[in-house]
Amino acid sequence: xxxxxxxxxxxxxxxxxxxxxxxxxxxxxxxxxxxxxxxxxxxxxxxxxxxxxxxxxxxxxxxxxxxxxxxxxxxxxxxxxxxxxxxxxxxxxxxxxxxxxxxxxxxxxxxxxxxxxxxxxxxxxxxxxxxxxxxxxxxxxxxxxxxxxxxxxxxxxxxxxxxxxxxxxxxxxxxxxxxxxxxxxxxxxxxxxxxxxxxxxxxxxxxxxxxxxxxxxxxxxxxxxxxxxxxxxxxxxxxxxxxxxxxxxxxxxxxxxxxxxxxxxxxxxxxxxxxxxxxxxxxxxxxxxxxxxxxxxxxxxxxxxxxxxxxxxxxxxxxxxxxxxxxxxxxxxxxxxxxxxxxxxxxxxxxxxxxxxxxxxxxxxxxxxxxxxxxxxxxxxxxxxxxxxxxxxxxxxxxxxxxxxxxxxxxxxxxxxxxxxxxxxxxxxxxxxxxxxxxxxxxxxxxxxxxxxxxxxxxxxxxxxxxxxxxxxxxxxxxxxxxxxxxxxxxxxxxxxxxxxxxxxxxxxxxxxxxxxxxxxxxxxxxxxxxxxxxxxxxxxxxxxxxxxxxxxxxxxxxxxxxxxxxxxxxxxxxxxxxxxxxxxxxxx
Length: 589
Fold this sequence. Notes:
Elements: H1 6-16, E1 21-27, E2 30-35, H2 36-52, E3 60-64, H3 69-80, E4 84-88, H4 94-104, E5 108-111, H5 114-123, E6 132-135, E7 151-153, H6 154-167, H7 171-177, E8 184-189, E9 199-203, H8 204-217, E10 225-227, H9 235-248, E11 251-254, H10 261-268, E12 272-275, H11 277-292, H12 296-317, H13 323-341, E13 348-351, H14 358-366, E14 371-377, E15 382-386, E16 398-399, E17 405-408, E18 413-417, E19 424-425, E20 438-446, E21 452-457, E22 461-463, E23 469-471, H15 472-479, E24 485-491, E25 499-504, H16 506-515, H17 523-527, H18 530-544, E26 555-558, H19 575-581, H20 583-587
Parallel strand pairs: 1-11, 3-4, 3-5, 4-8, 5-6, 6-7, 10-11, 10-12, 12-13, 13-14, 25-26
Antiparallel strand pairs: 1-2, 8-9, 9-19, 14-15, 15-16, 17-18, 18-20, 20-21, 22-23, 24-25
Helix pairs in contact: 1-2, 2-3, 2-6, 4-5, 8-9, 11-14, 12-13, 12-14
């Protein structure tokens, strides 16, 4: 049996470290632990259950669920059976879900709960026939309208795999032996920021190359505790939470729910974390909003401590130590902030999936958390570039492994050749480029040291009426450094200056409103309040002060409702969708 497939890596870990903890998940307020042996056993049961139902090479199985240990088990079980694992984002509108499932042509669909089952049933008439609907959480699914023979609980499904193993103890090994590292293992959807999401096919070899690169980059080891936040249907989420732990033997930890993430993170105190900018922006925003509501003495202590930590960071950037300032700032505020946020054990923090403000990264570096920016694409297997140390600040660092090649094409477009390159696109005959060079669609630059220093989607480079070009993503990221701004969509083509559609950070603005005796808390009421508009105007003015002339936002509007389904799984704005749905507001700027 080759270990150069993902199920092969799992078997190797289970054989060498059977009793070590592979997965932790919080259930009903208690942390439950599962060993590598248990992980392997449940994957085997899932694979044999699929095999018994005729699922094998040439078939696809879709996973439509939120992050959960059973997601990992299902993913590897599908691959063990020789089928293609298609990971869908847990939140999708009906049209997108139907399109993705239609492209997948899944023989089996695995859902998380009743909500996702309802969504699938609502579009079933538009889908190719599927044979089974397997569900993790059967709560609410025992009433008459769900008496469909295709609906099966995950536990019952697993049980059939156990029975199959008893009947033929050699079948699992036979399934593993027929796997090839060059065949497509997974389909991971692109974010769809500038078009329709595409299901990118990645091979076992590509995924393992990406996982090994990450494990080497962050020096991942068996004692590390990873915390699962990125959607597992995303290539980078899979690389961090599935593949890298399989390579290094680290544990993956799952919160009980999205509402308990902050509390659960504080309990488990992860050592490795990879998340979108929104997660880190949210952590910073919570701290700063709480400080703003604290008594004057606590506000003074925080301000003084952060000024000391800022001085320490400046000294370290200049090659010094910043020792006493760091010590003083840490004693006064830094250590307390990190402990309450569950970050006191964090040794590696990664951020990617969207542009992040330098103010946010500097804030974490000041607190002693090395927040490294990453760049990559689904089509290239995930992470390509990452910062290596503090001196890489202001850049996206260097290639994570030597095997990644880059060059700039016409107009500065970035071309990449990597071991993690796609092998195809789901539902199409599209093949990878014959010469191995993938056109990313991003405009990039490199500095004298070969570091990637700027990236912008070609489609998001705005051309003003003066002919000047502005990177919409960079300006939007600068606006999002405000604790009161959740997202900003910057427009400017043909205009004299950039303008922005702004989504409020509802909780932070509601707290501000309460402190100013404004008796409104719903998003719609806050968005139309004159004093809230004045608050956002002041925030925009503050951001403009740090932007170059010609890139400053001269007009803005507040989105009348939150941009929930207009955001990708990694928090990036789907520009085309936002501009379509809010055309009247944007045109009025």
